[in-house]
C-alpha cells in the first residue's frame, strides 16, 4: 500500500511519557510513521492510545525527556495545537466536530473565521471552489458544497471531516490521524471511507489509524503498533501477522471467540408483545420476545433501529401501535414509565445518554438503584459504598476507583459502568444498542458474556448491532429492518451474514435472486 519500495520516515517519536497526578498513562512510548502508509494504533481501552494522540496534537504536554522528529527535523517539545496543524499534523476524532445545520463549505470555513475579501465581504464563490477542490482530491466531486452536513450519511460526514482537516494544514498535511472513524459505520459504508483514505495515502501522507475492528486491518493497514498499559508491546507488519496473534499482543492472553448464547431459546413465557408500532421512521413494526431469548435487530443507519429502542424505552412516543409487557398493554410517556415495567436500555451513545460525565463511577452506578440504600429517612452510605465496590469488582471496571469521574474512564470501562448500573436493577427486558461500539477486543468479550448471562437469568434481550456476524453468534433470531419496516424475521440456525446483509439492502424478490 505504500507509495514506494523505501518510503521516507515522516514521524519519529522516542521515549514519550505522560504522567497524570502520579499515574503514568504513557511510559517511554516509541512510534515511527512512514509516508504513504496506514499505520494502525492498537490496544485495549485505557492502554494510552488517546493520550498519545493528544500529545501529538499538542493538547497534552509530554513529560520531559521525549524526542520527536518530523521529516527528519527535530521538533521542540512541548507545542500547542495550532503549531501541530501548522507542522502538518491533522486529526479527525470520533466526534467529527461538524455543525449539522451548516453547509459543507461553511463547516470548512468556520474554523478560519470566514476570511473576508474586498470591502469585508465573504468570498463565497472562492470558498465553494476550494471546498470542491478538496472533496475532488478525496474522490467525491459528487458532494454539493451547499448541502447541510447533517443531511449526509455518516460515512460522507467523515469524509467531509477528513477533507476539512487536510485543508487546515499550514504547509500541507504530512500526517493524518483517524481516531475510530468506522466505529459508528456499518461494514457496507466503511469501504467508502477506505477509498477516500487511500487517496490521502497516494499523496504521500502518513495515516495513523486507531481502531478496535481488527477485521479491517488486513485490507487496509500496512503496519501496527500495539500498546498495553501505556507501554509499547510490539510493532508488526500486518501481512505477516494473523488475527489471533494480534489479539494476544493486545490483550496479553487468549480471548475466546463469541459463541452462541447458551440455554433455551425461550422459556415460553412471553415478556413483550410489540404490535403495529410506527414512528418518524418506523412503519407497522410487530414482534414478540420471550424470557431467555436474544433477538438481534439488524439494519442500516437510518433504518429505524435506534428509534425502536427509544420507543420501547419511553424516550420517544410512537405515532401508533401498542406495547404489551407480560400481557399488559403499556403506554410509556417517559423512560421512568419503562423502568417501572423493568425495561432497561444500554444506549448507543454512552457519553451522551448512558452516564453523567461529571459524576463519579459510584454515583453513576447507584443512580437507578439508590432506593435500595434508604432505610427509613436515612441513606446508608456504608451500604452504598460496599455495594459499589462489589459492582466494580464483578464488572471489572478499571481503574477500580468509585470516586473517579465517569468522563475520564476509557470507552470500554464507561460501557461496563452503564451495563452494570442497569443489569443490577434486575430488568425483565434489556435493550443493548451497539454495546461494543468503540470497545477493545478484551472488553468486547466480557460484554458479550454479560449479554448472554442476562438471557440465561431469564431476561428478554434485544441486541442492536452493526456487527452482523457477532450478532448472529449471540442471538436466537434476527429481525432485519429496512426503511422502517421489518423485512425478515429468521432463526440464526444456518443464517449467514451475507443473507442478513441482502435483507438490509434488497426487497424480497431481489434477495431471492441474489441467493440463487
Automatic annotation (TrEMBL):
PROSITE patterns: ABC_TRANSPORTER_1 (PS00211), ABC_TRANSPORTER_2 (PS50893). One of its GO terms (molecular function) is ATP binding. InterPro entries: AAA+_ATPase, ABC_carbohydrate_import_ATPase, ABC_transporter-like_ATP-bd, ABC_transporter-like_CS, P-loop_NTPase. CDD domains: ABC_Carb_Monos_I, ABC_Carb_Monos_II. Gene3D superfamilies: P-loop containing nucleotide triphosphate hydrolases. Keywords: ATP-binding, Cell membrane, Membrane, Nucleotide-binding, Repeat, Sugar transport, Translocase, Transport. The keyword Translocase applies. Residues 11-254, 253-508 form the ABC transporter domain. Pfam families: ABC_tran (PF00005). SUPFAM superfamilies: P-loop containing nucleoside triphosphate hydrolases (SSF52540). The keyword Nuclease does not apply. This is Sugar ABC transporter ATP-binding protein. It comes from Arthrobacter humicola.
Amino acid at each position: 500500500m505504500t507509495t514506494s519500495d523505501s518510503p521516507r520516515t515522516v514521524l519519529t517519536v522516542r521515549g514519550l511519557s505522560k504522567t497524570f497526578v502520579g499515574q503514568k498513562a504513557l511510559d517511554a512510548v516509541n512510534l515511527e510513521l512512514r509516508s504513504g502508509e496506514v499505520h494502525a494504533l492498537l490496544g485495549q481501552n485505557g492502554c494510552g492510545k488517546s493520550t498519545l494522540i493528544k500529545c501529538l496534537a499538542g493538547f497534552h504536554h509530554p513529560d520531559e525527556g521525549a524526542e520527536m522528529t518530523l521529516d527528519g527535523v527535530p521538533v521542540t517539545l512541548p507545542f500547542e495545537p495550532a503549531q501541530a496543524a501548522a507542522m502538518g499534523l491533522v486529526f479527525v476524532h470520533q466526534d467529527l466536530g461538524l455543525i449539522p445545520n451548516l453547509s459543507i463549505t461553511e463547516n470548512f470555513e468556520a474554523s478560519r473565521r470566514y476570511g473576508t475579501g474586498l470591502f469585508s465581504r465573504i468570498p463565497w464563490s472562492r470558498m465553494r471552489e476550494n471546498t470542491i477542490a478538496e472533496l475532488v482530491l478525496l474522490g467525491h466531486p459528487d458532494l454539493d458544497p451547499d448541502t447541510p452536513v447533517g443531511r449526509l450519511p455518516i460515512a460522507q460526514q467523515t469524509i467531509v471531516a477528513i477533507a476539512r482537516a487536510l485543508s487546515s494544514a499550514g504547509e500541507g498535511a504530512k500526517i493524518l490521524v483517524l481516531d475510530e472513524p468506522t466505529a459508528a459505520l456499518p461494514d457496507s459504508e466503511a469501504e467508502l471511507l477506505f477509498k477516500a483514505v487511500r487517496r490521502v495515502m497516494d499523496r504521500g501522507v502518513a495515516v495513523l489509524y486507531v481502531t478496535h475492528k481488527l477485521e479491517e486491518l488486513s485490507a487496509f493497514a500496512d503496519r501496527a503498533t500495539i500498546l498495553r498499559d501505556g507501554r509499547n508491546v510490539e510493532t508488526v507488519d500486518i501481512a505477516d501477522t494473523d488475527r489471533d496473534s494480534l489479539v494476544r499482543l493486545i490483550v496479553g492472553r487468549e480471548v475466546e471467540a463469541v459463541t452462541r448464547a447458551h440455554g433455551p431459546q425461550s422459556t415460553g413465557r412471553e415478556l413483550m408483545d410489540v404490535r403495529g408500532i410506527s414512528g418518524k421512521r418506523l412503519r407497522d413494526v410487530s414482534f414478540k420476545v420471550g424470557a431467555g431469548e436474544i433477538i438481534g435487530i439488524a439494519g442500516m443507519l437510518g433504518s429505524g433501529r435506534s428509534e425502536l429502542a427509544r420507543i420501547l424505552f419511553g424516550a420517544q412516543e410512537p405515532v401508533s401501535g401498542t406495547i404489551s409487557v407480560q400481557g399488559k398493554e403499556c403506554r410509556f410517556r417517559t423512560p421512568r414509565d419503562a423502568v417501572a415495567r423493568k425495561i432497561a436500555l444500554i444506549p448507543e451513545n454512552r457519553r451522551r445518554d448512558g452516564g453523567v460525565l461529571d459524576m463519579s463511577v459510584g454515583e453513576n452506578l447507584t443512580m437507578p438503584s439508590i432506593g435500595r440504600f434508604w432505610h427509613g429517612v436515612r441513606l446508608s452510605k456504608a451500604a452504598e459504598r460496599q455495594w459499589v465496590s462489589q459492582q466494580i469488582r464483578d464488572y471489572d471496571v478499571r481503574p477500580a476507583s468509585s470516586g473517579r469521574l465517569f468522563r475520564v474512564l476509557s470507552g470500554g470501562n464507561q460501557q461496563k459502568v452503564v451495563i452494570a448500573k442497569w443489569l443490577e436493577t434486575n430488568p425483565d427486558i434489556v435493550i443493548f444498542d451497539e454495546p461494543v461500539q468503540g470497545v477493545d477486543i478484551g472488553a468486547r468479550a466480557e460484554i458479550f458474556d454479560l449479554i448472554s448471562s442476562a438471557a440465561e437469568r431469564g431476561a428478554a434481550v434485544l441486541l442492536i448491532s452493526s456487527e452482523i456476524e457477532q450478532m448472529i453468534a449471540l442471538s436466537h433470531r434476527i429481525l432485519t429492518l429496512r426503511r422502517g419496516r421489518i423485512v425478515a424475521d429468521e432463526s440464526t440456525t444456518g443464517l449467514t451474514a451475507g443473507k442478513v446483509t441482502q435483507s438490509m439492502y434488497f426487497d424480497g424478490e431481489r434477495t431471492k435472486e441474489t441467493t440463487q
